[in-house]
Design goal:
By secondary structure, this protein is mainly alpha-helical. The chain contains 17 helices and 5 strands. The N terminus is likely disordered.
Length: about 400
């Protein structure tokens, strides 16, 4: 095991690490760098810099950095020491025990699950929002996966495939009573989207941008908010107009067509050549926004200040989500029931309703997992089918 680092950092070390983290601002937009610098070690910061230089995707890097921050803070709260590299199996098991537990057992055994002192320490740093219930199994698995990845990047062998750990996770998941929640409680199908677009039907620059953003995100297969935020003019390729009626290729009525080169995505690499098409109204909305904004390169969807001035910087993924929620509220719907991921689930749900083959829809959404994509189809078919309507 590598020697333990000092539990506390002096002010000079913290300032130096904060300066280094500032240099990674483009991919690590944290608003609490001093807190990060006080928790992460020099080796941690060096690992993050190495991941940036290795070309790791921005979203993956943000997730790894966030998980590393949490793991370091948890280790200090749970053991009083910095996170050791590589972590012994007993520490991995302690992590599982602190995050996945049986809620009914905790009612009679207050030592079961995460200790109150650890919980209080993490909550004081804004790292813990879950109260009186275990973490979601998917969240715990992701943090363990990040832990394993960071261990490998340091050139070390971990214990993440140990039978004891796998068994502990499996049993702990069974004991939790949490059901998996979708990222957006409700899907944004075409009827919801129509209502939201009415909310931004005005002539302001913000309305023009939001119409283009929402129609592009939905029609391009339900693009992830990170992909919408990362879209650049250079990714747009104008194509020849296509027939308005696919069954009449020689028809005189044509629709504008645009290809979006996706580059690096959550499930694809930049060199994969992935691209999706926009046809018709979404193209008109997108081109209208670009012409109205007056730029010819750089980010497509940009911030607009309170005075209506267009900024050079791109919207963040969080801003994309907030724009959607604001427009949802303006449409008279509950923003708590929707998130940006609802555009993705809504696209597939709408495709299923209209009888579009799953594989055709997946070409547009760029889902790699048939099982994941088909879940939206199954839900739509069950709601429209007869099996659940025997007493209607």
């Amino acid at each position: 095991m590598a020697p333990k680092r000092p539990a506390l950092s002096n002010a000079d070390d913290v300032a130096r690490r904060a300066e280094t983290l500032d240099a990674l601002d483009a991919v690590l937009p944290f608003d609490r760098r001093e807190l990060l610098a006080g928790v992460l070690s020099d080796d941690d910061v060096a690992t993050l810099r190495h991941l940036v230089q290795a070309g790791l995707g921005d979203n993956s890097l943000r997730a790894l950095a966030s998980d590393l921050f949490y793991l370091e803070a948890w280790a200090r709260a749970a053991t009083g020491e910095p996170l050791p590299w590589p972590a012994p199996e007993v520490l991995l098991l302690k992590f599982v025990a602190h995050h996945l537990w049986d809620r009914s057992r905790r009612e009679t055994d207050f030592t079961h699950g995460m200790p109150d002192t650890v919980e209080a320490a993490l909550r004081s740093e804004g790292l813990l929002k879950v109260t009186n219930r275990p973490h979601a199994p998917a969240t715990v698995r992701r943090k363990l996966s990040s832990w394993s990845t960071l261990t490998k990047w340091r050139g070390m062998q971990g214990h993440f495939n140990a039978p004891g750990l796998k068994s502990a996770v499996k049993l702990a998941v069974r004991a939790t009573d949490r059901t998996r929640q979708r990222k957006s409680q409700k899907a944004i199908t075409s009827d919801v989207l129509a209502a939201v677009l009415k909310a931004c039907a005005g002539d302001s620059l913000v309305d023009c941008r939001d119409r283009a953003l929402l129609t592009t995100a939905f029609a391009s297969g339900g693009r992830r908010r990170s992909e919408v935020a990362a879209l650049r003019v250079e990714h747009l390729v104008e194509e020849a107009p296509v027939p308005a009626d696919p069954n009449d290729p020689d028809g005189t009525e044509k629709l504008p067509c645009l290809m979006i080169r996706l580059g690096r995505t959550k499930t694809g690499n930049a060199d994969a050549g992935a691209g999706v098409y926009l046809i018709g109204r979404p193209v008109t909305a997108l081109q209208g926004w670009i012409a109205r904004a007056g730029f010819t390169d750089g980010p497509v969807f940009r911030a607009i200040d309170r005075w209506g001035h267009l900024q050079r910087r791109a919207l963040t993924p969080q801003a994309v989500n907030l724009i959607l929620k604001r427009r949802i509220a303006e449409a008279g719907l509950d923003p708590a029931e929707f998130s940006a991921h609802g555009l993705r689930s809504g696209y597939l749900t709408e495709a299923a309703r209209r009888g579009i083959p799953l594989l055709d829809a997946m070409q547009q959404s760029q889902h790699r997992s048939v099982n994941q994509a088909s879940s939206y189809y199954n839900d739509a078919e069950r709601k429209l089918g007869k099996a659940a309507r025997l007493l209607v």
